[in-house]
Amino acid sequence: MLVLGLVDIPIWGQLLILLVATIIAYVVYMSWDYNIFKKMGVDGPKPTLVMGNLGLFFKDGIVKGEIDLYRKYGKMFGTFEGKFPTLFVADPKLLKDIFVKDFNSFVNRRDFNQLDDPMIQESLLSIKDDHWRFVRNIITPTFSGKKLREMKPLIRQAQDILLENLETKANNNEDTNLKETFGAFTLDVIARTSFGLEINSQKDPNDPFIKHAKTYSDSTIIGVLLAIYMFFPFLTWLPRFLQFIGINLTKKSTDFFVSVTGAALKERRQNPGNHTDFLEIMANAQAANEESPKTENMATGKWSSGRNALSDKEIMSQALLFFLAGYETTALTLTFVFYHLAVHEDICDKVIQEIDDNLGKESPDFDNIKKLTYMDMVIDETLRIFPPGSRIDRIASRDVTIGNVKVPKGMIINIPVGAIHMDSEYWPDPEKFDPERFTEEAKADRDPYTYLPFGAGPRNCIGMRLAVMEQKMCIVSVLQSFRPVRSARTDCPPKISKMGNTPTEEGLWIKFEKRD
Fold it and tell me: Per DSSP, what are the bridge partners of residue 350?
């Protein structure tokens, strides 16, 4: 009868009915799980239809929004990112369970399928379970003390260019855009330590490496991908379709890095032993294991322990990940370290004095930077206030109980690192920059799961040791010749993007003065 009735309705009326029905179906689909946290006995803000709780983050930004929710609802609460329920967990005892004790229930990270980039999907960021374990175990020796010591000359090359640029600015009494300056430096370091390439990003802002690296942090591209993920999760095919019709999101940049990595890997095989970078290490492992076939069991998804080297695609994917992850995070850490040294003259004096007393003009390296304990404290306090990764996510791989809350398989678990780092229970007067929080005595009295700039447990940041060495060597080499100071353009406090702990487009500016 309904169908017969529709026949008598004009075509515009039928289209209107169809539109209304589609909207209702969409709203129901997006809001279907909005009572899940009530069933779990977990508190949290009331979601709005379709949007969930995203409006709060659009208004206040990710970091501030999570801090406000944490202070209102406590160490466990639930929010909705569009249709996706997300359980926030911040209790240190429960975090130890998630990161270590019950790690097998939380091995995997969230998978943003909308990127539809095969190289990203094969990286440590996205691969899962036994495949992740296999790749992680193969790559871990890359960051041994012996390998890091061998990378000193590569880092030093980039440092020399950085010091030349800072001297030019100091001689001309020019301000320095911290994120731009240390972003280019970090890019040069990663190009050398990952690909063995000498690029020119510190001298040439139009270097193709800069252009393609920025593709992955471009706010427009991120906005499109997040909008698809949050509001149209059923359109997983859309990025591939956009590429098909000529609208490329990340494909051109991925193709660039694949081409560079492939050429460099080929050169390593033809001329082994001439480099000390990631690709050289991986090529050597391949050569030692070239007779071992790939033995993935397609039925079980298990990865055989008989294979002791990565495939070319796996190597390229990890190189791309190191490039992208190391570029932004290390640059941000250096940006905020030098900002704090510029606005806290007394702290800057202590760091410089420590360097002068222990190293003088000696070139920093993997071993001698270990003497600089106060500088370590300054870096740690910087990472507390401005952790580059303000949240960490995991996916429950099975039904599991956290504390007294039953968490269903597939639920997103978010650890609000930025909010934990601003909890006055662990960090009195949390807004204050105070390196003394990280004396050996203070650290011994504090739960280690209240400080998580690199994550924790088996899936923590694999490149942490290289990043820390790079940061310390850079800070030492700069402070041996220059003093960071405020300028008329220095914002106090700094203006931070709503997308995370990164300066806004206006930049964060200070000056570097030459030391006597």
Answer: none
Distance CA 236, CA 239 (A): 7
Question: What is the 8-class DSSP label of residue 450?
Answer: G
464-479 helix and 152-171 helix, angle to the nearest 10 degrees: 40
What residue type is assigned to position 205 of the chain? P
From first to last of its 516 residues, the chain has per-residue pLDDT tens of: 455 555 578 888 878 888 888 889 888 988 888 999 999 999 999 999 989 999 888 888 899 999 999 999 999 999 999 999 999 999 999 999 999 999 999 999 987 655 556 677 788 888 899 999 999 988 888 888 888 898 898 899 999 999 999 999 999 999 999 999 999 999 899 888 887 777 878 888 788 877 777 777 665 666 666 777 777 777 766 666 666 666 666 777 778 888 888 888 888 888 777 677 788 878 777 776 654 444 444 333 455 555 677 888 888 888 888 877 788 899 999 999 999 999 999 999 999 999 999 999 999 999 999 999 999 999 999 999 999 989 999 999 999 999 999 999 999 999 999 999 999 999 999 999 999 999 999 999 999 999 999 999 999 998 899 999 999 999 999 999 999 999 999 999 999 998 889 998 899 999 999 997
Place of tokens 């801090």: 67
Between CA 31 and CA 40, with CA 37 as vertex, the angle to 5 degrees is 140
User: Cα 80–86–90 angle (5° rounding)?
Assistant: 125
- Greatest Cα pair distance in the chain: 92
Enter the DSSP assignment of 196: -
Place of tokens 């193969």: 138
Give the span between the Cα atoms of 54 and 230, in whole angstroms: 9
Contact in structure between 283 and 269 (CB atoms under 8 Å): yes
Q: Which domains does the chain have, with CATH numbers?
A: 32-111+390-452 (3.30.43.20)
Of the candidates 262, 290, 297, 265, the residue with the CA atom closest to the CA atom of residue 131 = 297
β-pair type (482-485, 412-415): unpaired
What is d(CA 53, CA 60) in angstroms, rounded to the nearest whole number?
Answer: 12
327-330: list long-range contacts, CB under 8 Å, 24+ apart: 327/183, 327/186, 327/187, 327/190, 327/213, 328/183, 328/217, 328/388, 328/502, 329/388, 329/389, 329/467, 330/182, 330/186, 330/189, 330/467, 330/470, 330/471
Continuous segment of H or E residues that includes residue 81: strand 76-81
What sign does the dihedral 450-455-458-464 (CA atoms) show?
negative
Comparing CA positions, the residue from 381, 286, 298, 398 lying closest to residue 340 is 381
Whether 116 and 239 have beta carbons less than 8 Å apart is answered as: yes
Tokens for 357, please give them.
């007393």
